[in-house]
Design goal:
The protein has 211 residues and is of the alpha+beta class. It has helices at 19-60, 73-79, 136-142, 195-209; strands spanning 9-10, 15-16, 97-104, 112-119, 125-132, 150-154, 157-163, 176-182, 185-191. A seven-stranded antiparallel beta sheet has the order 3-4-5-9-8-7-6, sandwiched between helices.
Length: 211
C-alpha cells in the first residue's frame, strides 16, 4: 500500500515512511545480506581448508606397515658393468634380504664402490661396501676415522674389527664393523646386527671372493 505520492505505508506505523526510515530499512537489508554472504564465505573457506588437510594427510601420512623395498642384489651385481672386478653378492640364508644395491663409478675418493644394504632376519642392518682398488684413505672415511679395536678370523679370513657398540646410539649404523681385503677388493661390513649375523654375512662373502 502506498500514499498518493507513491511512498509505501508501513503497517506498524499507519503512515508512509520518512526518508530516514526508508534509508534505515534499506541499510538494514544491505547489512543482513553482507552478514549472510560473510557466513556463506566462511563455510566455503572451512570446507576448502578441510579438503586441503585431508589431502595432506592422504599424501604425507604413511601406514604403520613396513613397505617392502626388497631388491635383488645378485641380479643387479650380475648386470653391473665393472670391468674385470667380481662384485660381492653372497648367497645368504632365508630371512636375509637387501633393501639397497648400487654401483658408483669413481666416488670422491676416486674409488669404484659397490654397496649393498642387508637386513637380517631380526630386522637389523649390515651394510656392505666393496671398494675396488681402494686405499687407506677410503677405508678410514667409511669408518668415520675411528681406530681398529681388534681382529677376528671367520671362515679362514682375517677381518679387522671396529667395535663401537659402547657408544650406543651415537655410533648409528657403524656400531660394529669388519674390514678385509681380497686382492684389489676391500670389503667393509658395518651395521647394528649381532655377532651371529655379521659372521653369516662375512662367511658368505669370504666363500664367494676367496673362492
Amino acid at each position: 500500500m502506498t500514499d498518493p505520492n507513491g511512498r509505501p505505508i508501513v503497517a506498524e506505523l499507519g503512515r508512509p515512511e520518512t526518508a530516514e526510515e526508508t534509508w534505515a530499512r534499506k541499510d538494514a537489508a544491505r547489512t543482513a545480506r553482507r552478514q549472510h554472504q560473510t557466513a556463506f564465505n566462511l563455510v566455503i573457506a572451512l570446507i576448502a581448508s578441510l579438503g586441503i588437510v585431508l589431502f595432506l594427510v592422504a599424501v604425507v601420512v604413511r601406514p604403520d606397515a613396513t613397505v617392502d623395498r626388497t631388491v635383488d642384489y645378485q641380479q643387479i651385481a650380475a648386470k653391473a658393468h665393472v670391468g674385470d672386478a667380481t662384485l660381492a653378492a653372497p648367497a645368504l640364508p632365508d630371512g636375509f634380504s637387501a633393501n639397497r644395491a648400487d654401483f658408483t663409478d669413481k666416488t670422491s675418493d676416486g674409488v669404484d664402490v659397490w654397496t649393498v644394504g642387508f637386513l637380517t632376519p631380526d630386522k637389523q642392518y649390515v651394510g656392505m661396501q666393496q671398494g675396488i682398488g681402494a686405499n687407506d684413505s677410503w677405508v678410514a672415511n667409511q669408518l668415520e676415522q675411528h681406530p681398529a679395536t681388534g681382529t677376528r678370523t671367520l671362515a679362514g679370513t682375517k677381518w679387522t674389527v671396529y667395535d663401537r657398540r659402547a657408544e650406543g646410539d651415537d655410533a648409528e649404523n657403524h656400531a660394529y664393523s669388519l674390514v678385509t681385503t681380497f686382492g684389489e677388493n676391500t670389503i667393509v661390513l658395518s651395521g647394528t646386527a649381532d655377532d651371529a649375523s655379521f659372521r653369516t654375512v662375512a662367511t658368505a662373502v669370504s666363500k664367494q671372493l676367496a673362492g
